[in-house]
Design brief:
Number of strands of chain B: 0
Chains: A mainly alpha, B mainly alpha, C mainly alpha, D mainly alpha, E mainly alpha
Structural class of chain B: mainly alpha
Number of strands of chain E: 2
Helix content of chain B: over 70%
Oligomer: heteropentamer
Radius of gyration of chain B: 21 Å
Largest sheet of chain B: none
Radius of gyration of chain E: 30 Å
Structural class of chain E: mainly alpha
Strand content of chain B: under 5%
Largest interface: A-B, 70 and 87 residues
Strand order of the largest sheet of chain E: 1-2
Chain lengths: 100, 178, 483, 525, 647
Amino acid sequence: MILLTWYLILSGVLFTIGAVGVLIRRNAIVIFMCIELMLNAVNLAFVTFARQLNSMDGQIFVFFIMTVAAAEAAVGLAIIIAIYRNKATVNVDNINLMKW
Amino acid sequence: MLAGLLFIIMGLITIVCALCVVFQKNPIYSAIFLIQTMVSLAVLYVLLHAQFIAAIQVMVYAGAIMVLFVFVIMLLNLNKTDVEGDYDKLLFQKPSAIILGFILVVMIGVVTLNTVFQGTQGEYTPESISQIGNTQLVGKMLFTKYVFPFEIASILLFAAVLGAIILAKKQIIKDKEV
Amino acid sequence: MEIVIPPFDLKSISPIIILTISAMFILVADVFFRKKFKDSLGYLSFLIVVMTGMVAFTQMGKPVYSFSDMFVVDNFSVFFNLIFLVSTAITILLSVSYVKQEGINYGEYYTLILFATIGMMLMAGGADLLTIFLGLEIMSISLYVLAGFRRDCVRSNEASLKYFLLGAFATGFLLYGIAMLYGATGTTNIKGIAEFLANNPALSNPMIVAGTSLLIVGFGFKVACVPFHKWTPDVYEGAPTAITAFMSVGPKAAAFAAFLRVFLVALPAVEQKWSIILWVMAVLTMTVGNLVAIAQTNIKRMLAYSSIAHAGYALMAIIAGGDFGIASLLFYMLAYAFMNLGAFAVVIVLGRKGEENANIEDYNGLGYKHPLLAVTMCIFMFSLAGIPPMAGFIGKFYIFSAAIKNGFIILAIIGVVNSVISVYYYLRVTVVMYMKEPGREFAPLSLSPFLILALIVTVWGTIHLGIFPAKIIALAQKSTLLY
Amino acid sequence: MSLPILTIVTFLPLAGAIWLLFINGEKQEKIKRIALVIAIGDFILSLPLFFKFRLDTSEFQFVEKVSWIKEFGISYYVGIDGISLFLFLLTSFLTLICILASWNIKDRIKEYMIAMLVLETGMLGVFVSLDLFLFYVFWELMLIPMYLIIGVWGGPRRIYATIKFFIYTMAGSVLMLVAIIVIYFMNQKATGEYTFDLLKIYNLDIPMGAQFWLFLAFFFAFAIKVPMFPFHTWLPDAHVEAPTAGSVILAGVLLKMGTYGFVRFSLPMFPYASHQFVPLIAWLAIAGIIYGALVAMVQEDLKKLVAYSSVSHLGFVMLGIFVFNIQGMEGGILQMINHGLSTGALFLLVGMIYERRHTRMIADFGGLTKKMPIFAIFFMIITLSSIGLPGLNGFVGEFLVLVGVFKSNVVYAVLAATGVVLSACYMLWMFQRVMFNKLTNPENKKLKDIDKREWALLLPITILVFWIGIYPKPLISRMDASVNHLLNQVDEKYKVTLNRLKIEKKEVEYAVKEEKSAEHTIEVD
Amino acid sequence: MPYFFGCSYLDLIGYVLLFPLAGTVINGFLGKKLNKAIVGIVGCTAIGLSFIVSFFVFIDLLKLAPEHRVFEKDYFTWIGSGAFEAIAGLQVDPLSVIMILVVSGVGFLIHVYSVGYMHDDDGFYRYFTYLNLFTFSMLLLVLANNFLLMFIGWEGVGLCSYLLIGFWFEKKSASDAGMKAFIVNRVGDFGFILAIMLIFVTFNTIDFTDVFHAAPEHLQTGSFIATMITLLLFVGAVGKSAQIPLYTWLPDAMEGPTPVSALIHAATMVTAGVYMVVRCNVLYTLSPFSLTVVAVIGGATALFAATIGLAQNDIKRVLAYSTVSQIGYMFLACGVGAYITGIFHLVTHAFFKALLFLGSGSVIHGLGGEQDMRKMGGLKKYMPTTHTTFLIGTLAIAGIPPFAGFFSKDEILLDAFTKGSLLLWGLGAFAALLTAFYMFRLLFMTFYGKSNMTKHVEEHVHESPMSILIPLLVLALLSILGGFIGFPTASAINSFLAPVIGGGHHSMADGGNLHHVSNSLMFSMMGISTGIAIVGILLAYLMYIKQPDLPAKIVGKFKLIYKIIYNKYYVDEIYDATIVKPTVKTSFILWKIVDVKIIDGFVNAVARIVELKSEVLKLFQTGYVRNYALSILLGGVIIIVCSLVLL
């Protein structure tokens, strides 16, 4: 079971890398990819738990997360395209019309 | 033992690739590294006796979804390194992100290492799964216990498709209105 | 291996089915409708929502579990469904002329609103974290799109992008929290988690505590609590006004429904931890929301901060818990739906194409020019400020009562002090309307019958709930049993 | 009483306001007349309360009780006793005066009258509510029309003043809301019944520590409204900026709500805390009396002067209430009415010259008696009433208060009595500078004396001023039973608490003794 | 009980009040429309009727046995709250009867006088309204049967005084003086009102009879409470009767019309304090200390005011200071326990001082408003009647037998000597000397010597009309004869008032105190005081008739003293500098700094801070999506850390 713990730690590391990536990157698409990274980390955790608990629920959950990820990818990329059309940039630091 | 070794190798690859995703300047490289991360994760899924998940990880995630990313990057002609500009306007963003990330990792590590897993054990040991077959099991569950979310997911996808279309359509269709 | 597909309890998901089918129908109808009949799409969806509401209302009664405990229909969820449907219906009324004015008059618009409503219903009725998660995603994805619906408007794009990126980011946390809970308890079922935690040490299990914390992040983002609130003003400002109105009410209520169900049903064992965290968050939320609202000049932004502050009040209900707390949240959300939608309705009525991001100063002298409209706005402002005899007062009163009943007196005091601060910026709206000279010409009002109906309904709701709240309170009290 | 007279009187103005909503705003005369008729009708309807009021009982009369929000135990529960009776009548009377006084308002008369009538309902409601929740609703409700009256029809700094007024008073009252809820649950714990019924809550025995905090919460709400000394700064601003009628209502009725609140709520619910707080309140009241008078003396604006004089006068009321004897209390209540009449009339008078000259600066006037002799007579009478000249109303209240205070604490009485001297100083000085001396300002030479409408405003008040001054018995005798009952109630509950305190002390002492003796035995061993 | 038309005159006592009140109401409401003659007739008739009723009441009272000469009539409960009860009721006893006779009698004469004097004034009806109101209040004051009702009258006369001093309100000095009178009186009332409350708290009643009955049983002689009550009452008396230190308003009060000065500021109102002290003699007797205070203040005032009177040039001001001084005498008498003597002097003083004022009024009237004595002189030939009556008055005040003032003043000095101390006697005697001097100075400067009038004035000088002269004559007669009611060996007033003194009806013990004094002492004292008066007169004669340049020389020698006296010891200035100005200044500070800066500043600062916080917090909303994400992560991390580690 110690091994499984390491899986979880790996998932945590991935999650963190993803989260940090979201914070430090400025390209909207890359940020989005970092979010995907986070989701992958979650998936890993789910699968690990499923394995550990001898239950399938975690795997099913991962299945749904993937579905959601796909949906989000579609919408998210569409949004990015839409904004690129209007502003010709995907740098999120330049997309700050609204503040305060 | 072999599994352990494999885990270490794949885990390292995953982490390195993930870091590359974050630190590569060129988004297309990031995307490629993300795919690599996903693939290596798929290997880990297999190690965890989740073959079906591993399969769709490669096919759907790394395949379909990431292709979409690459496609968009290409479409928008973003495969340049200088998209993000030279310097970060938010001075404290990076250091604080890294500090917070560090704390987060430590906390997750602490949590994981300190947890005694007592969760209700399910009936699907790796043995029983391999008896039925992972994919069959998933299928069965999707149509029994998870039939409702499964149906609901269709709405989700429908909404997403609809949204993607409406947002990404080239020109507002004014023909009907004109 | 045999697969026995469990019986489909269609009755319990009948509102969802109705909405799904009609959403698609509208999509199809859109293709065939000519331009001049476009209004009828709105009309149609309004009727559908009303009808759904009636169906939903009949579901009141004993709790029914369906789909192997994935979904539950209890009074709590029915009550919330009614709130969602009310807000959806009013949003649709607000939208009909608005979308025409903004040139975004597509059938997809209504479809997505209905989808979002479905998502909200799933969140309120989700008995499994998976259902809640899916519902949340359906709702969010619809809203991401709706926020960016004015594709040619940069602000709308920006709102959409910010909402999407941050929403996805927060979803990551939520999922990680769910994963941890799953890992620690072996189930994602709310009842299952509750049972497990009742029989096993919960507070000493760091996984559970960490999972709970991450859930707070996820839900906190959706209800716009400090420090997860920052998307709110920007998104509210940039999104089409009708959608802003919708977002500030329906999805928020849905998030609260899920928040409350998860925390009060699944996680009472860790209440000791989360109640303190939520306590601090509630205080911060109220205070930051109210304080920053004072400095706003844009009315939509001001209402955004006000909605943050209201989230703080609503959090008090969760912290207070118990029958009283739950009932107070139910009532508050309904009252809030009426008054906030009403306020946005006035904003829409006064909005002009391209210039709908009205500054508060643009309302100068409104009381002279359009007295009735100004009175209406006044009613909403006073209600939001919590001054009797408006709905907002009873709602706040209820929530503070709940907090005090369960011993959170200091929280209640902070709450009331905050509502005094809030008076300042709500009053400013009335001040400019009545006590300043008109600065510029008001555009002719874009008053469609739908908008008028929306205004009447919201005014009626705001006043009726303020003066004769007994029935709704009774209903709310009957809806507190959670399963 | 089969006829729900209180409800009718309370809600008739609201009905009138709704009626006015549907009348074209252009028809100014019609609107004014309707408003006036409603106000007159309301006043007439309220008169039977005075005549049919039973002197022999301390119970609430003309009671009506209908369940409102059953789930919370909130009911529409109204009734009056000798304490609220006169404030109720004063309200309907002054509103009538105010509507007549606002005859010359041209700007948005319809909204103005609606606000006025809604305000009347709110104020009347406050005085008749016997349900804490209902009371709070009315209490807050009346803020809105007042806020609009100051803010829309006020002077140049009206926005600042009105927001200050609103937020200041609201800040005080929200704490009261918390306290009300706390009491509600305390009562529920004690009796098992969810109720806001004031009479039931009177029987609640609140622990001493809780009393302290609850009293404080109520104190802020009421003290700001009164306003007591350090919380008074909203008042001058609000008064100066408000239109005449607004000032009249503000001074005549709104301020009384604070003092009324103390009598009706703070005292009987928290007798122990009330007693504990006496020194603080008394000193604040005395500070208010002297401070208000001194500051009033050097004001340059007539309205501000009257506003600060209110601070001074209400100090007397507060002092009277918090000496817990019948003279003080009755004097206090009487003084509330007197202050309502005389300060109300002062604002009317100031309003009259303001309407003519569009200035309120004392320096702009002088020698007006020459041009406005009738005005001068009324002004003189009201001024004297405000000073507390025997034979006029002010004296009776002031003297009773002083007697009451003297009975309980000589030092307070002596200090408060200096207010008698000071009030003469500032009022007469003001009067001299406005009405006497040579008429030098050419602007003032065109002044006209008061017209019939203004006669109609001032005469009734003047008659009341004399009536209360010469024969206040009908008023005082109506208060007797209620005030006695209230004082007994407070006294009994206070004594119960004190006894408990003693017992506890004894127990503690006993325990200490036992401990000591135990130690003793150990030592012996 | 004697009855007349089925009822006793005593029952009619209410009419004494009713007539003046009716006069007030009629003149007040209708006066503007009525012509002046009717207004005057109404005003005078009201008081005349009142006097007639008073007279019959007096007769009725006389018919009663001395110990039963108390009649009370209650009308209604005025204020009743718990144990506190103030009844609107009147009390007729020898003391009040004397007072009402004097008030209505002198009042009537002055009303008549006013008809002529005020004839040309625009505010004629206003004047009579006030004057009637004043008479009403004064009568109420003396007839009241309890302290609070007395206080109504007390304040009522103060009000009328205020209104009448400021009658010519367009004159700043007049309205100032009115205000000053009212406010200074209020200071006295402050004491009075506290005294009433102390009485109520002590005796649980404020009814005269009850209080005076209970007092000797309740209170020990010299007890603290008795002293406090009496001292506080005396504060009231000091204010009303213009004694040190509250006398400053009276000289200023001369801004009012002269008949007003005569009635209010000489004959009646200012002596209310004396009346009150006598009324409360039972209480005063219980407190020797208070009595001493009363005597000392009285004596000091008598002398102090007399010195100021020496150097004044305004004819009315001289009379005003002399009034202050004479009232000092009355208090001196009361202070040594000779209450009846005090009242005796009150009565005679009412006669001769009213006479003097009216006479001066006649002079002023004749000179067209001139009040400065330096611009008069030699008026004897122009105004013979006025001169004669004035001379009588002056002789009376100077204490020349057999004029009224002689008897009363002499008795006071005798009492001061026998019951008080040599010091008190010395004060009184010296003041008597000064009185004689400055009164004759006034007389000489006005009526004798050469005329200093301007040409214009001289041409128009004339004797006054009959409506002015008749009251003068009547008063002159009274000033001659008035003294005999207190003729030393058979004092009618003594025996009449005796029941009132020392606790009323149950004790007549120390009433007619005079008779214990040996005749030799009495006569020698008479001689001395007459001598003093003559010395004073001679001095005045020397300086103002014989050697008119002498005063200037003396002034030249004692420049500083003269200047101090001329400026009334700078008391007004001192008050102004120590009380008025600091109060106003403090008030300004309280307003501009405490109120606006500190209290309101605090309130506004709170609002400002809130707004500032708002502006600052707003900036955290940077608009950068990454930044928002940071705050989410930050929040998340904090929550996790807190929930895991801290909580």
